[in-house]
Structures are given as C-alpha cells and as structure tokens.
Amino acid sequence: xxxxxxxxxxxxxxxxxxxxxxxxTTVSRAISGKGRVSEETRAKVxxxxxxxxxxxxxxxxxxxxxxxxxxxxxxxxxxxxxxxxFLRRTMGAVYELxxxxxxxxxxxxxxxxxxxxLRRLLDNHKIDGAILTRTIMNDPLIPLLKEYSLxxxxxxxxxxxxxxxxxxxxxxxxxxxxxxxxxxxxGMRRIAILGGTLLYTVNQSRVQGFRQAYAQMNLPVxxxxxxxxxxSDSQRINALEKALTFGPDCILCMDEEVASLVMRTLxxxxxxxxxxxxxxxxxxxxxxVNMVPQVTAVQYDAFQLGNMAMQQLLATMEGTEVERxxxxxxxxxxxxxxxx
Length: 340
Description:
Rossmann fold; 14 strands; six-stranded parallel β-sheet; alpha/beta; 3 domains; disordered N terminus; 434 Repressor (Amino-terminal Domain); elongated
C-alpha cells in the first residue's frame, strides 16, 4: 500500500551518500539531474530513493538545484493590516498555487520609496522570485529586482511603460470607462469622482477610463467635481461635502473603501441613495453588496489575478517563455444605488 506524505521519510543527502558509498555531491547531482555523474550511479541513487520511499526535503532539493523554494509577496506598508478584500483574495491565490508547487511565500512590506526589506531578502539569497502586489510611478522596486536579475511579476501597469517587466492586471481602464459610460447613458451627466493618490498606477488607470467615457460621448468633465489625492477619511469627507455643494448627480468612488465611507457619510447627513444622489464604485467588495442600498460597482476577480501572477512567476523561474503582459476582464454590476 502506498505511504501517505506523513509516512514518507525525509531524505538526508549525507545518509544516502554513506549508504551508497558515494559523495553528497554525487547524490545531489543524481537527484537534480544536473552535473556530471554516470548513468549507473544516477540509476542507483534513484532506485534507492524509490525502494525506501524517500522524498527529498526542500532544503536538500534547494541545495541540489540552487533554489530556496521561497517567493516574496511584496505589499505596501500601509496595507499591513491586510484587511482589504482584494489583498486577501490575491494573497490566497498566490499561497494556494505556491504551496501546490512546494514554494513558501514570504511577505515583504515596503513603503513607497524604502526598498530595504526586499533588498535584505535579495542580499541574503532568500527568494527565487517576487510578486509586486501594487505598482507605483517610477517604482524603485523594479530597477532593484532587475539589478539582482530576479524573476518577478508586477500586479498592475508599470509606469513609465516597460516591455521588460512581466505584469498581470485587470482592465482597469476599460472597467472605469464602461461604468462611467453606463452612468452617463442613464442621464447622470454631473459625476463627482473621489479617489486616492495618482502615485499608484491603478488609480491613474481608473481616472483615465473615467475621462475616456466623457470624451467618447463628447461631454466635458466638470473639473470642480474631480477630487483626487485623498489619503485620509477626513480628506475624503471634506471632498464629499465640497462636491455636494455643486449638486452632482452621482458620486463615483475610486475603490470600495471610499465608497463605504461615502455611503456612511450620506446616511449620517440624511441624504438618501439613490433618491437624492447616486453612488457607484470602481471596485467591488462584499461590503458594498451587503449595504442598503447595494452599491453599483466594477467587479474584478482578485483570486484569478493572484493565480495568474503566480503562474507567470513559476513559469519564468523555470525558464519558460511567457507573455510579458496579461490583462484580465471585468464585469460591471448595476445595483440599487444607481437606480433611476
């Protein structure tokens, strides 16, 4: 009867070398398939492993193949509470696929310009690859990873564009454009948009899609209804209250965090959604679905995003040629918050 994983013995290179009367280097080469070793010796080592149900541990295999079997998942420091639905699902997909391929995932939290946590992993040769969960303008992590010639995948759109960087992203421009277009077609001409810093390329893409929708319908964007670089709740509430003085038809929120705050604030002010004003979000979340009324939003598959990023990284670490840029789809979900 086949032994399960718990019953497998952990292979020790020294023990096998002593049993077979060869060096550890010879055993390592026979296991990895790399290096000069006779076919007779290779077959003897492989037969010994099969007979004794040995399974190489990752340290031994890593030494044999010059790998650590670790990958870094690089996260902005201000996400350290890990309470964003997008981040949780993306991380879950990366961990799941990494585990299936015998990799461990190391979290590396970096600030916008401080690359030292990732640099330490690189200096100490602790990782075989990395996934950047967010991209920023002139991202210092990209030249750092290039300097070390480490395989990596960026989730997002590097700016300035770089054809050498592998990236995976949802069609953020298309999602923002389609939702804005639908709102305009429903008669909401005066749309106020509230969002965070344009340092993050995802926000740039969403603003781009918003403006494209207006341009395609030959309508002007009311610049006094555009509020960006909002990085705190107090800034967002102040921007909302200022926007309300101009009488917008709809508040379009850059992400689910802004949308949740807007909905709570409007409720506190006694402003009814959608009767008095509409609300929509350029990113969906379970919280927006559970609100009353439910909030119209662009839905992306964060799990698929993490899965595809990890697939790209695994292929690259194995030396397989892959597409340099993958763009995944989206779905606009119309809900009661924009009902006319």
